[in-house]
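Suppose a colleague, Dr. K., hands you the sequence of a protein chain of 433 amino acids and asks what its three-dimensional shape might be. Before reaching for any lab equipment, you can write down a predicted structure in token form. Begin with the sequence itself:
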Amino acid sequence: MEKHKAEADIATHDQNPYKIVKQLLSESVKQLGLDESIYHILKKPMRVMEVSIPIRKEDGSVENYTGYRSQHLDVLGPCKGGIRFHPSVTLDEVKALSIWMSLKSAIIELPLGGGKGGVIVNPEDLNQRELEELSRSYIRKITPVIGPEKDIPAPDMNTTPEIMAWMIDEYDKLRGYNIPGLITGKPIIIGGSEGRLDATGRGVVIHIREAANALNIDLSRATAALQGFGNVGSATAKFLHESGVKVVAVTDVSGGIYKEDGLNIPALLEFIGEGNVIADFKECESITNEEMFALPVDILIPAALENQITSETAPSIQAKIVAEAANGPTTPEGNKILEEKGTFIIPDILCNAGGVTVSYFEWVQNTMNYYWKEDRVNKELEEKMIAAFKRVYEMKENKGCEMRQAAYMVGIRHLVLALQARGWIQNGDLSKL
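The predicted structure, expressed as tokens, is then:
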């Protein structure tokens, strides 16, 4: 018990995502009144693979990159999760992300477990040939542990449908026939799903709408600020604009822009689509991340990297709703400050689950070899998102806790019931669940 408590205490003052997720698991298991053994089952991935990926560069030199694949738990079904290419990828990050994927799938009640992969690389340092070689080599190295019945990768940070196409092509070559269900987030022409590209952003905005309804906020008069303008951030901005929300600020790695009476989001999307960067968008003021976080907006959406809302940035946040479109954007200290303020947080494992939900739909379509129209995909996504929000909100109300704790408890409850059904848990009173 002392070791269990010590792990949680260490995480409170640490921005290591694996320590943070273990702390939250520990607290949620206790809150549900479950035996500590549940925590020990959930705190470690069942399998982690590290691979070496040597790539010959254009100048003839060889660079050896490190890649990972973490598979957390498969009691609900095959593992599922993205592959990210980023210089800050670490083993602990990949482990944490795989646990978050398990919880996401459990909250949405998808028949999937949690997986995650990554390669320590800056894709901007590679030319097209080198990037393709890296992508194909990575999938070859993890082939023994993946497959449509074992672990189904998908895009994540700095990986695209094109990269997924290279990966599935390499896997199919190794197997000798087409296996479209291996990877989701593929181009539509080779088995991808309509609606997948915008799914995470669409899901974020559905959750914002549900939170606004719960808080009696009129979205047509609401304002928002957004950190990050990649695939998720740009789709979120588009759907917020369509919902009548005034997006007043956007920041990314190039800089930030602000306009009090609202940015022209359609024009900004077109501008970025032409290969330009946020900071060069005209007819608005420049703004830093710190200034953006402090704006008196109704909705703040972190859609970039982990650990952005911290003990330094949280005190200045005035937003009524923080919608975590990114994975792990809020540290425990930042979360505590927001909760003390009464900020309504839509936690990442709920807020950004639209992506894995439509990835599930893609996998289902691949299995059936029958493909849906986009309106069906969006309708099914909306139903799943609304049901998940209600489950978490009801847990929040019943337990008198905040939304993050409630989301963890909903996910853990679903996993525990699956563990019990499989006979992994023999004793203990689960009637409270």
